[in-house]
Amino acid sequence: MLNAALTDERYASSDQTTGSASHLESNKKFMPVPSAKPYNPPIKTLIPLGLRSGVTLDWTQDGKRFPEQMVQIILKFHEFEKLEDNWDGYGARPLNDRVVLPAFELIISRYARQYPSLVLLPDGGIGLRWVNGTREVEIDLEAKGGTTGFYADAATGEVFEIDEDSEPDGVSTLLDRYFSH
User: Fold this and answer.
1) How far apart are CA 7 and CA 60, in angstroms?
2) Mind spelling out the 3-state secondary structure of 65-128?
3) Mean pLDDT in runs of 10 for the chain (181 residues)?
4) Quick check: 46 and 58 in contact, CB under 8 A?
5) Predicted local confidence at residue 99, as pLDDT
6) What is the pLDDT of residue 41?
7) Comparing C-alpha atoms, which of 169, 111, 162 is closest to residue 140?
8) pTM score of the predicted model
9) What pLDDT score was predicted for residue 1?
10) Cβ atoms 128, 139 nearer than 8 A
11) Calpha distance 75→90 (Å, rounded)
């Protein structure tokens, strides 16, 4: 039966080290010990967007650059904020601050693998539009607080509409249909 003392004695003859842990040093000859890299936790950064609504993004720096598409979306919100009453000549309202946070929550949700295009709605709400081939989704975050949406697939003829007041999970249903293909 082998014990630690016999193991130390056996490996001590092949190694010039001394001490009770000499067998550990001699094992390095048989199996390399990987060097441990220091753990560098990801850096979290709170990014103020400079919007009237005060919305900020909590971004985890993972070694990649901040997404250029997200920069373009932020700039689009800044453009919308500059518009005044009647910006379309038909009485359209300027961007309502209450839709900014819900819009960003949708944009950076689990559906962030494809960024939407944005449209300012006449009531001051935000429309998010995803289009991919024959499929499209439109989600409107209305200034008064309601949400409506539409999914269509021209290839299959499938059409699905939601009114968030009557269907609380409607937005998820629309986006799940769109991104599941």
Assistant:
1) 49
2) CCCHHHHHHHHHHHHHHHCCCCCCCCCCCCCCHHHHHHHHHHHCCCCCCCCCEEEECCCCCEEE
3) 49 52 59 66 78 86 81 93 92 94 86 85 95 92 91 92 73 83 72
4) yes
5) 93
6) 67
7) 162
8) 0.71
9) 46
10) yes
11) 24
Q: Rg for the chain (alpha carbons), in Å?
A: 29
Among 122, 115, 98, 105, which Cα is nearest to 172's?
A: 105
With tokens 């040093």, the residue in question is 25
What is the distance between the alpha carbons of residues 51 and 77, in angstroms, rounded to a whole number?
8
CA angle 119, 98, 159 (to 5 degrees): 45
Q: Which residue has the tokens 């985890």?
A: 60
> How far apart (Å, rounded) are the C-alpha atoms in residues 121 and 100?
13
What single-letter amino acid sits at 46? L
Q: Would you state the structure tokens that stand for residue 101, as one six-digit string?
A: 């946070």
